[in-house]
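Case study B.
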Amino acid sequence: MSEAVISAPATAPTKLPVVPQAGYALVAPNLIYLALVLLAPLGLMASYSLYAGSLPGLTLDNYAKLGDPYFLRLLLRTVWIALRTAVISVVLAYPLAYFLARAPRSLATLGLLLLLTPLMVSPVVRAFGWVVLLDRNGMVVHLLRHLGFEDARALIYTETAVIIGLVHLLLPYMVLPLMASIERISPSLEEAARNLGARAPQIFLNVILPLSLPGLISGFLLVFVEALSAFVLPALLGGRRVRMIGNEVFDLLLVAYNAAQASTLTVVLIVLTIVVVGAGYGFGRRGARL
Amino acid sequence: MLRIGPLLGSTVVVIYGFILLPLIVILGVSFNDTARLDFPPTGFSLQWYAELLHKAAFLHALLLVSLPVGLISAVCATLLGTLAALGIVRHRFPGREVLQGVFLLPLVVPHILLGAALYLWFASLGLSASLGTLIAGHVLVATPFVIRTVAAGLVGLDRHIEEAARDLGASRFGTFVFVVMPQIRSSLISAAVFALIVSFSDINIALFVSGPETTTLPVYLFSQIQWESDPSVAAASAGQIIVIGLTVFAIQKIFRARVGR
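Model:
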């Protein structure tokens, strides 16, 4: 039937012929689709970033413009918000990940369900909940005043509001890799530490933290990258004051019709993303070898 | 056995409170009896849900855009993704590892940028925003989820059953339809449901490739929240939370029942 029979996967030895042509035929539709709807648009965008307005020829002017104080502030603000989001996510994710990794099965399943179901709800809807909570007459302001902060102001349209929303949106991306890492740590290590007199904080610092580092790093980078390209959250919770790269790309493209500058920002953000994801991948591999 | 101490236990409860609070707030506001976005609610009424039924823009976004786009995108993504998963799991060919990475690219590139790139691409081709451009974008971001889900289902299959079918004279296609498909049915269903949810909740791509006549539900909600939010927006949002909650609950029940057998 076929002359080129390639070795079957190691799991189950079979005599089913595995034909490379059939493999190519099966992946071809998706590959063609990606070429037309992913690679071509991204390539077009990269080329737009080199356009010099109506003038002929290519230029790096659009990239040079990113050195303007306005764009520098935008880039720095975006990175700084993403960084704080990732750090706060780590702090919140550790107790949750530890709980999910060590709780009895049924409780862990329920916990995982409660963590993951909100992921499927549109970010718009989740942001809306925070809009209501953080607004001028929202529950959070009332609560703060009740607690004695008489001059508490509405948090909406501040960086704090954007970070709260982003942490809420992205926390599961931090919890899942962390949980996977903690699950692999044998509980007997913790028991041994406890029997030798270590207290909970010591066990965390000397046993859990170092051994869950791969999960921590991959979760941290994932949250950081996702936060870098946020759009809905800063648009609804940050308003005009707290704008991030995503908001700028949107306005440049759909309001100012400046495709070249929008493309430049896009290329910068994509390169940033790929560098961060690549670094995470490298870490992950090293972690696996250790 | 490790105990979950009271300190850890209460911390976890507080964090779950943080996770669920905004969703509870939306539900509360949607059932409230005032026109203000008040939480905690002061009464109970279904008036905002009733009002939704009179909002033409909402009904259009839900019934004529989001639902059909979601269903068509789910079918296309499931087809493309299943074929690709079969190729990657079942066959060995040069370039296979690279392709695995390439197929996950739509997940790596931030969706807001994919939306921007698609907007420019469709404009350069002279295509105006339509249901077609929306579906093209949603199929792109839903397919990687399908590939993952179906590939995971394929990996565990016992190939000897297919071999037996082939030995007994079944064609390749017949083997797939009558032997492989029934075995990965639950993977296929969850992949399709996943694709539908991805399309239904997407905003970053829809913002760029949907026009005034093809506003999806999330885009409609987004502009309502930005400009003139009233509790009927909360009712529309709460509707989404309820539907997704019930879907997850149902899937969980089905899988439990399967494991039980």
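Chain B has a mean pLDDT of 88. The remaining cases will be described in the next quarterly update.
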